[in-house]
Amino acid sequence: MTDPGVSATTDPSATNDLEATLEGLLSVESFDPPAGFTRRRPVDADRAAAAADPQAFWAAAARELLTWDKPFTQVLDDTNPPFYTWFADGELNLSANCLDRHVEAGRGERVAFHWRGEEGEHRDVTYADLLAETQRLANGLLSLGVRAGDVVGIFLPMIPEVAAAMLACARIGAVHNVVFGGFAPSAVRERMEVSDAKVLITVDGARRKGRRSPVKAAVDVELGDLPALEHIVVVRGPGENAAEVPMTAGRDVWYDELLAAADPVCPAVALPAEHPLFILYSSGSTAKPKGILHTTAGYLLGATYTLRTVFDLDPETDVYWCSADVGWITGHSYIVYGPLSNGVTSVMFEGAPDYPDHDIWWRIIEEYRVTVFYTAPTAIRTCIKWGAQYPARHDLSSLRVLGTVGEPINPKAWLWYHLVIGGGRCPIVDTWWQTETGSVLISPLAGVTPTKPGSATRPLPGISPALLDEDGRPVTEGTGILVITQPWPSMLRTLYKDDKRFVETYFSRFGPRTYVVGDAARLDADGYFWIIGRIDDVINVSGHRLSTAEVESAIVAHEAVAEAAVVAQADEQTGQAIVAFVTLAGERVGDSAVEAELREHVARRIGKLARPRRIVWADDLPKTRSGKIMRRLLRDVAEGRELGDVTTLRDPAVMSALAAKVAAGP
Ligand code: ATP
Ligand code: MG
């Protein structure tokens, strides 16, 4: 273990020094928590308690961290696996846990969200403000006929109203179904139709990097004829809207008018712990998105406990910012529920990372003195491509802890994040989890766990991951299929209206008590977990199983490369051969010289077997809206098949460009 204690070079002319420093550190396997970092929340007692009796540990955490209207006496009910329940006879209200209890404790004037609009607008929303807005909206929804158990769709940009909308649903027991604001209204239609949404909360128009587009008008066209949809609530979004907003009398209502007419007080009703809280679709990286159902108490416990424990969060002093969108699980758990339940002050940012310029994130960190920053590896790689001169413009010394989520982080991106953004001072928590898991399951704990770039390290207290081989035998060191062997409170309860797909997807391979994650992983001698890719993405060359994550990270470690995705192509000789899709950084163009260098580079780092058979130069890679590479589509292209489900693709043009390139031959 080493702590190189290197601090970031902030001189943009020193790009070559930075490259050399990164290159030098790539061989360092493990980093101790930075020497100057002092952890505030001890975790040894949690670890001991969870190891001794996981259910007792979760029960104690649920009593300590959540406020109950009716205390529970049952903890886990596992008599009907895989349909588990937690704390089932207890009652609570989630919005009361996120709002009322802080206001009642005298913290109403604390800022919940420092909202920052993309044109530079600022708005501070306190806990008292958010409680007031939530109560009025809850009453407004009741006046529109929404009742506990009804589904409310939410299709909004990153504005404080999105949090109020989610909390208002939770307050009255309505089930929210948030759809990422960047999706096309057709994706919204499908999700509203499947869930029989009664009300949709949306916005008049959207803006993105200075461009405006009407939203409500498009929603009308796509969703106007849905029989279950009784009302559409329309928020006046920030900024001027160019387009006319069509409003249908009797059906459509302005958000502000609904609030103005509503009673200001809406008591939080006590709801059963297992009351459904939300439906949220997974990202669609591996298949058609799945409608995941989470319930109230277990989910909130997971979000609350993991945020404070993983990030060592102190609500009194920290300013926290998660750059995700609220339309993903990360936004649900770590922009809305986890931060509010803990009573922390967060930043909420409406815009894109490169508007008005490529330094906007770092400007925001400097302005709000952000202490904890949580983002995705794909975003970090993009920032690397833009260059260290952008963060260098700003004072990032307030940062204390950095996090990532979404995919394995390649060591080079980890090191850049560590040095350039964290100044070598900040522990990095590489948090592994899924829409299904509700909250983080495997992650370093800031300042406690020695980190190895690329590994999510060890399970959190109370979580029991394991690796199995194809026949279900435990793997203690080496690679295998990642499973979770014990239920945990924030796990999904089912797929919405599809118990059959729920059982088939997660619990058919090794029985109803073993949750099959869908990822393949490696366990090293220190008991660290390395996510090596999706089960279906693992590549088998001449009988050797190669990890997509490992091959990609070797390619990305080459200085000419910005991003890479590898997939398998059927091959007569070797069973499968590797095809690499590579985006270059800087000045280099994809020619046979770079190709030879890359193949040699991979051979040196991993071995000759891992050398790509074919390299396709790509201007961009197909990604989901949450920034994950869709390897399944690349596989389809590499093997000349028709493309699978593309509804969650960010930019469909990327795929047609690649398909044309591949068809044109090497
Ligand atoms: P779908 O399930 O629809 O195919 P998805 O799996 O991408 O989409 P999410 O629930 O958003 O949908 O993503 C969870 C997956 O993201 C995990 O199964 C894992 O593959 C990957 N992932 C998330 N965090 C990490 C991490 N820290 N390290 C490695 N992989 C991660
Ligand atoms: Mg998944």
TrEMBL record:
PANTHER family per the record? Answer: ACETYL-COENZYME A SYNTHETASE (PTHR24095), ACETYL-COENZYME A SYNTHETASE 1 (PTHR24095:SF14)
Q: Where is the AMP-binding enzyme C-terminal domain?
A: 550-628
For this UniProt record, the keywords arranged alphabetically read as follows:
Acetylation, ATP-binding, Ligase, Nucleotide-binding
Residue stretches making up the Acetyl-coenzyme A synthetase N-terminal domain: 46-98
Classification from the root reads: Bacteria, Bacillati, Actinomycetota, Actinomycetes, Frankiales
User: Which Pfam family, giving just one, matches this sequence?
Assistant: ACAS_N
Keyword rRNA processing attached: no
Protein name per the record = Acetate--CoA ligase
Spell out the NCBIfam families in the cross-references: Ac_CoA_lig_AcsA, PRK00174.1
Family, per entry: Belongs to the ATP-dependent AMP-binding enzyme family.
Which Gene Ontology terms describe the biological processes this protein takes part in? acetyl-CoA biosynthetic process from acetate
Alphabetized GO MF terms? acetate-CoA ligase activity; AMP binding; ATP binding
Q: GO CC annotations?
A: cytosol
